[in-house]
Automatic annotation (TrEMBL):
UniProt keyword Metal-binding present: yes
InterPro entries, alphabetized: Yippee (IPR034751), Yippee/Mis18/Cereblon (IPR004910), Yippee_fam (IPR039058)
Family the UniProt entry places it in: Belongs to the yippee family.
Name of the protein this chain belongs to: Protein yippee-like
Signal peptide residue numbers: none
Name of one Pfam family that matches: Yippee-Mis18
């Protein structure tokens, strides 16, 4: 029997709840307050918090913090709206802080 190829995933570092797929990474060059972060096109098993306007490095954005749906750990944020035209590609995307996620199936 052949080994089936499993997708490379990321999970919450605290409880190992799956939160995203490696194939959904758009960029690995994002900066969060505590270090590097990844921009994902999709996230799963998360809770999206309240929207608020935040001044970020790249300008004003409407964002919502995202939490692990199992343990409630703050993992990053979701871009709801970008006010600068050059930042519109971020809308609807998720930023997960690198130190808050761990690799699965690597």
């Amino acid at each position: 029997m052949k080994d089936s190829i499993q997708p490379r995933l990321y999970s919450c570092y605290r409880c190992r709840n799956l939160v995203s797929c490696h194939d959904d990474i758009i960029s690995k060059s994002f900066q969060a307050s505590n270090g590097r972060a990844f921009l994902f096109s999709h996230a799963m098993n998360i809770i999206v918090g309240h929207k608020e306007d935040r001044q970020m490095i790249t300008g004003l954005h409407t964002v919502a913090d995202v939490y692990c749906s199992d343990c409630g750990e703050l993992l990053g944020w979701k871009y709801e709206r970008a006010y600068e035209e050059s930042q519109k590609y971020k809308e609807g995307k998720f930023v997960l802080e690198k130190f808050k996620i761990v690799k699965e199936n690597w």
